[in-house]
Amino acid sequence: MAWLPVDALESGMTLASDLKGPDGNMLLPKGIVLTESHIASLRRRGVVQADVGSGQDEAMASAANLDPALIEASAQYVVRRFAANDVEHPAVAAVYEAAVLRQARELAAGAPLLPDIFPSPRAESMTDMFFREEGSVKDIVTSEVKLASFPDIYFKIRQILDAPTSSPSQVADVVSKDTSLSAKLLKLVNSPFYGLPQRIDSISRAVMVIGGQEISTLVLGISAMNAFKDIPPELINMRTFWEHSVAVGVYARLLGAAAGQGGAERLFVAGILHDIGRLVLFKKMPHAAVEAIYYAKANGLPLYAAEEEVMGFSHPLVGGLLLRAWKFPDALVSCVACHHKPASCAGNVEPAILHVADFMAVGMGISPPASFVAPILDAPAWERLGVAPERLGELAKAGLAQVEEIVSAFFPVRKS
């Protein structure tokens, strides 16, 4: 345990035990990553210290309790994910070590090593609606926009927020009319993602606590998850796809807090949306999309690099064009379009955060379907965050529970 005075706490630290106030009431749960607003609230409530533990000490203790043979088997299995990266790089090494420990714990619990999963052989016979020689990337996106308009609830909320006179109750009224969306929002708000000390039981209360702008951003991301429902199952497991997307969103939010950045909801939604271009490719160019998956596996490449080889472009470009056509905020468009090449969006740290978050998610084994190799970590992007490498293992572990809870809330497993 490592108890620090409140004035010594920093954004991005993780609570090692439940934090209670002077009156004995629970304020923040174990495992939550502290933000500046959390720390300011603790000062106001008269809290004098908090247990932030030592992530490195915990990892060493955990490794000591595991069978060395399991760790070795896990290392041989996990290292394949880092084939395109230099595992001597401090940030890469930190995520690699956290991933090996996670895999070793799963083996110790009796979980088998998962085999590589490819699209169904039937997918190879699918005919692309567009070919590179016949249509441009913009043609593909324009066709998709015409066929599937984005749910308009987000734009209704934006209209309210952009009006000279608006109130949180107006936002709550619009969201509350969509019962499915309301249920998912409340589950998210009450999850460890926020770590609120009291349960939020209404959308109006959520808007008051989280904020109208923030709720509208969350509505944007959650609604996007419903915009693609007709992808052939031979091509992709949608639950796995969104699990990876949620993981990137969670890690982006944690990294943003650790880097002292605001815009937590925007970073989370950027994570949810970062691979949406892949869904367009699966719909419009299924044969080429499958070919890129096999090419990536055969050559030990990240999927975006294989897409560029096979199609001449990759999913971040498609995703950025789609979001721009849907009139999404420019900050989200840039994040999605630049998440594999953050230097192409100079002056904005958020694409760099999203890039590192994507690397962490794949490295930890929360990968998009049929994607095996973690993206090449962009060293300048990593350095822009200003986060110590040893923090990554702690953040990687803290994010896992949040991902599992959010995914189970959004995609409950149906009992047969």
Automatic annotation (TrEMBL):
A molecular-function term among this protein's GO annotations: hydrolase activity
What's the protein name?
Answer: Phosphohydrolase
Q: Where is the HDOD domain?
A: 147-342
Q: Which Pfam families match?
A: HDOD
Species of provenance:
Solidesulfovibrio carbinolicus
Cell inner membrane is among the record's keywords: no
Read off the PANTHER family from this record: PTHR33525, RIBONUCLEASE Y
The uppermost taxa in this organism's lineage are: Bacteria, Pseudomonadati, Thermodesulfobacteriota, Desulfovibrionia, Desulfovibrionales
Keywords for this protein:
Hydrolase
Question: Membrane spanning segments where?
Answer: none
Does the UniProt entry include the keyword Hydrolase?
A: yes
